[in-house]
Write a structure and sequence with these properties.
It is a single chain. The chain is α+β, with helices and mostly antiparallel strands. The protein folds into 3 domains: 29 residues; 251 residues, DD-peptidase/beta-lactamase superfamily (Beta-lactamase, 3-Layer(aba) Sandwich); 162 residues, D-Ala-D-Ala carboxypeptidase C, peptidase S13 (D-tyrosyl-trna(Tyr) Deacylase, Chain: A, 3-Layer(bba) Sandwich), CATH 3.50.80. 33% of the residues lie in helices and 15% in strands. Strands 2-1-12-11-10 form a 5-stranded antiparallel sheet, with helices on both faces. Strands 6-5-4-3-7 form a 5-stranded mixed sheet, covered by helices on one side.
């Protein structure tokens, strides 16, 4: 009996070795975008001190170890007045749990927030819509017996086809919608249709005040419409990019809704439904019957994706949905007013003045104090629906725009590695960072640092300096 058992042990060991080797080989074949998915390896030096990870996870350290105003001021002294931040710097540091202010400079001054404005959009959307809210893209019967209408429902994560299984969240796809539509049509004995598309859910201009046309041509955002796929991203061939693999800064589609309708028609044809005539813009008739629909991931997952990627298209769609839910026009102005009103009801008032939902406009204004209020509100035990704001924040050294190479803010291992969560924001002469630092004594600190008068070429130095400021908060007890 011993020999078969020994052979079994040897077989299991060989299987383990084979599996590890195969995993390493596959990992090395992954595209550069997935460089963070490396084979396991032992680091040559500690990346995080044990004290940071193992200290009690309390909202505030005990009174003998809590940070003091003098301690924070001393720790931040090398950063305050540093010319890398230009002529205007705003900083606020507070205890996350109590809100006790530990340091402030220009905390009540409105700065151009860049993408830290997405914190306001995330809080407003989760509060108004709820974390389980979803968005539907539908196909309904048209005005004529042989016509159908593709109706945009403002799903900012809709794709042509399902991305790789590792993608999170998994989006709804036009491929699914076309297959379901084809089945419904065939069940009615229809194999030839005319197709139109409906974008009436939103109104107003497709570009916000302060947005140059180069935002679209440089791949930062698409024209905002309730019907688009892959967020208007295009491959060099001009076809929609099926999945976000790598950073695509090619010009985005000048007409995302028309492109989506064109792709949908081709998918219908592949499913055995002939599409005839011109595909044009139209409004679905009142009382139209729904033939098929697909549903987005829940809002909680969409918010996390938006914050991690700093995704502008998602932010603008969510602002529109807040407007619709609160009775405002589904425009840039309506979204901005709806967000401001929602935040005011939550106790965050004059410190937020918006013209868009993404922070792309240099006309937006948010104070450091308001950013810290947003972080504290999303962390509060009394606001569990807002928790995806915190879980979606990039983590220094690991994820999103704070991961290695994730943005101009991405840095290597430092004191804040793994213990700083923060939303980044940058425009050409603007840098901002707001989030949470877990210091070495176990105290959670909320912070915001903003500078919107950088020199023309100053962003490359200012952004890493802001991360270093957050790292400093994580590294010290600041007593």
């Amino acid at each position: 009996m011993r020999r078969p058992r020994s052979l079994a042990l040897v077989a299991v060991a060989m299987l383990c070795v084979f599996t590890m080797g195969a995993g390493t080989a596959v990992a090395r074949l992954l595209p550069r975008r997935l460089a963070q998915l490396r084979p396991p390896a032992v680091t040559g030096r500690p990346l995080v001190r044990a004290g940071q990870v193992l200290a009690a996870a309390a909202g505030t350290a005990d009174s003998g170890h809590a940070a003091t105003r003098a301690g924070i001021a001393a720790a931040l002294a090398p950063f305050i007045g540093n010319q890398v931040f230009g002529s205007q710097l705003g900083v606020l540091v507070a205890d996350l749990s109590s809100g006790r202010v530990l340091y402030q400079q220009n905390a009540g001054v409105g700065f151009a927030p860049a993408s830290t404005a997405k914190l306001a959009t995330a809080v407003a959307a989760l509060h108004v819509l709820g974390p389980t809210a979803t968005f539907r893209t539908t196909v309904v019967t048209g005005p004529a017996p042989d016509s159908i209408v593709l109706v945009g429902g403002g799903d900012p994560t809709l794709t042509v086809r399902r991305p790789p299984g590792i993608a999170y969240p998994q989006p709804a796809t036009l491929q699914q919608l076309a297959a379901a539509t084809a089945r419904a049509l065939k069940a009615k004995g229809r194999r030839i249709v005319r197709l139109s598309y409906d974008t009436s859910l939103y109104g107003g201009a497709g570009l916000a005040p302060g947005w140059p046309a180069s935002y679209v041509t440089q791949g930062n955002v698409s024209v905002i419409t309730p019907l688009e796929v892959d967020q208007g991203r295009l491959l060099p061939s001009g076809a929609p990019q099926d999945a976000q693999v790598g950073m695509n800064y090619l010009p985005r589609s000048p007409d995302p809704a028309a492109d989506a309708a064109g792709v949908f028609a081709s998918l219908l044809r592949a499913d055995g439904i002939a599409v005839t005539g011109t595909i044009g813009l139209a409004r679905a008739p009142a009382g139209a019957v729904t033939l098929a629909s697909v549903t987005s991931p829940p809002l909680a997952e969409i918010v996390q994706l938006m914050l991690e990627q700093s995704n502008n298209v998602i932010a603008e769609n969510l602002a529109r949905h807040v407007a619709i839910a609160t009775g405002q026009p589904a425009t840039f102005q309506g979204g901005a007013r709806a967000e401001e009103a929602t935040l005011a009801r939550l106790g965050i008032g004059s410190g937020v003045q918006l013209v868009d939902g993404s922070g792309l406009s240099p006309l937006d204004r948010i104070t450091p104090a308001a950013l810290v209020q947003l972080i504290r509100l999303a962390s509060a035990a009394s606001q569990p629906d807002l928790r995806p704001v915190i879980t979606g924040l990039p983590v220094t050294g690991f994820s999103g725009t704070l991961g290695p190479g994730g943005s101009v803010f991405g840095t290597g291992p430092a004191a804040g590695y793994g213990v700083v969560r923060a939303k980044t924001g940058n425009l050409q002469t603007v840098a901002a960072l707001a989030g949470i630092a877990y210091d070495k004594d176990g105290q959670l600190l909320a912070f915001a640092v903003m500078a919107d008068k950088l020199s023309k070429d100053g962003l490359g130095a200012a952004a890493p300096a802001m991360v270093s400021l957050a790292d400093t908060l994580a590294a010290c007890g600041c007593r």
